[in-house]
Amino acid sequence: MEEIIGCHVSFRKDTGLLGSLEEALSYGANTFMFYTGAPQNTIRFPIQVNQTLLAYEKMKEKGISLNNIIVHAPYIINLANKKNQEFGVRFLKEELNRVENLGISKLVLHPGSHVGVGSEEGIKNIIDSLNQVLSTPTSVKICLETMAGKGSEIGKTFEEIKAIIKGCIKEEQIMVCLDTCHIHDAGYDLKDIDHLLDTFDQTIGLSKLACIHINDSKNEPFSHKDRHENIGYGYIGFETLLPFLYHEKLKGIPKILETPYVMDNKNSYPPYLFEIAMLKEKKFSKTLLEDIKKHYRKD
Ligand code: FE
Ligand code: FE
Ligand code: ZN
Questions:
Q1: pTM of this prediction?
Q2: Cα–ligand 2 centroid distance for 154 (angstroms)
Q3: Banded pLDDT at 299 (limits 50, 70, 90)
């Protein structure tokens, strides 16, 4: 079976799911993740059925499963603090509806930031919010993302994620998205992947793992900074990241790159075509960043 490797792509009003699919295919990806609109606002346009059906057709042709496509919820949703709760619950319900209409089954969500009320209270608020959201039946699974612990972010430990899942009435609706940059920044050791997956299994359970974000990190462990770096160019490193793509226990789980665009003094270029190729070849390229610039400049 071929590995399921994709990346973050755009989702545009005029081209919809078909446009996202075509962007992903241009990177050699066989899955992808997108925001249904700008991640920092709530402006959302109606989804066009026509484009969606065309996308399904093309996915079938290319052997891409709708089941592996991921939507990321906007990060302005914060379920951990009472102040933002009402808005967050309403918007998340709408978002689940949009995702369901697209035929997609996984929505990645940042658990939230407690903004001063403390982790325990924050976790209670998240549970309360999710229970409200899930009072309306949905076929979509909410995938809580493991976080770096920037500011007052909740979800920086597997225990916190587990506490949220345990508190949800519809536990079966909640899954998890593991982000390599975030857990590294939170202080987990990624070098011993067997040990890490055992730890995950003992706290949350590997059957809950629905998505993996593959990113390098610009910072040292425990930095709590959450700044992604290109694969092999950060503090995690290529050799440590590679097993997250090919480990036996992670087979069939979609792997999504959220690495930064490569910049020169004029433009920025998507790294994904080259990063995906490098990960498939399983061999680090020291000239990756230069190759990306050369490739796109020429076009
Ligand atoms: Fe995220
Ligand atoms: Fe992520
Ligand atoms: Zn991040």
A1: 0.97
A2: 14
A3: low
